[in-house]
Structure formats: C-alpha cells, structure tokens
Design goal:
Number of domains: 1
Radius of gyration: 15 Å
Structural class: mainly alpha
CATH class: Mainly Alpha
Number of strands: 0
Distance between the termini: 13 Å
Helix content: 55-70%
CATH architecture: Orthogonal Bundle
Length: 170
C-alpha cells in the first residue's frame, strides 16, 4: 500500500509541475516540454494493460483540461500506454514484464535509455502529428518536434533522477 501512495504522490507532483510551471512558461514557439509522460514511463512493471490504458486516459484528460486542448493529449497518451509493453520488449529487450513488479529503472532494465527515448519520441510524434495534421509547415513542425523532444527528455531524466530512488526503496 505504501508503494501505491508513493506513486500517486509522484503523479500528483509531476502533474502539478507540468500544469502550473511548464504549461505557463513561454520558452519559445519551438519548445513545448511535455514531461508528464514520465508518469507512464515509471508505472510499475507488473501493471496490467487495462491499468495502463486507464492511467494514460487519466493523464491525457487532466492535461487536456489544463491545457485547453480538446483530446490532443488523450490521443497521444493512449497509444503510448497501449504500446508500453511492446516498447519494453523491443527497445529495452526486457522480457520479464509480467513476473516482476516495481518501477522500471536502469538497474532493472538493461537498455533503460532506449526505453525512455522510445516512449518520449513516440509521444512527441503523436502529439505534434495530431496538433498540426498537415505538412504545410514541415520545417516548423520538425523543429518544434526536435526541440520539444529534447526538452522533454531532459525533464524526464530529471524527474527520474529525483523520484526513482524514492519510488524503488525497499
């Protein structure tokens, strides 16, 4: 039960930072950090696919309501939640997902960086692909995708460095 409450507190803190800080800072038109997906990345390994879908739906709805986007975050987080298990299998070569619980870390998953980058890149592709839905401004879209993905990766690794020791404590 303590692990569940720690994870819920982690999700609340990440969402508050995203909503009250990152959504309100205007860095540039090219930079839109979406660090809330660290909640999906660090969801415990033994989580059922249904739990992952509901977690993705919850995160997407909260972010859509706070950002004023109509379904954009849900469209980006639901496929991310659905494909998390295959990404763990292929990007990180992690096969013991069903038998192990706990938060994914570099100690548990050999190629943890591949897993994190694959999740962030997939989310950014979906988010910016659905946001623009055109190739008219391909240069702007590509630059925004690249800058936002790098910023999201930096923030994701920052959240992982800060919170993972607290979530994986025995």
């Amino acid at each position: 039960m303590a692990k569940r409450s720690e994870y819920i507190l982690f999700v609340a803190v990440v969402l508050m930072v995203q909503i009250f800080l990152l959504n309100n800072l205007t860095f540039s038109t090219y930079l839109a950090p979406l660090a809330y997906i660290v909640c999906l990345i660090l969801t415990p390994l033994g989580s059922s696919p249904l739990k992952m879908i509901f977690t993705g739906l919850f995160l997407g709805l909260v972010m859509d309501i706070s950002m004023g986007t109509v379904g954009l975050n849900v469209l980006a987080t639901l496929p991310l939640a659905y494909f998390r298990r295959p990404i763990l299998h292929f990007a990180a070569s992690y096969t013991d997902v069903d038998n192990e619980g706990g938060v994914p870390t570099a100690r548990r998953i050999g190629r943890f960086n591949n897993y994190v980058m694959a999740m962030v890149i997939l989310h950014s592709l979906l988010f910016f692909g659905f946001e623009f839905m055109t190739t008219a401004n391909f240069g702007f879209i590509s630059l925004r995708f690249l800058c936002s993905t790098v910023a999201t990766l930096i923030l994701t690794y920052l959240f992982i460095a800060i919170f993972t020791p607290k979530l994986t404590r025995r």
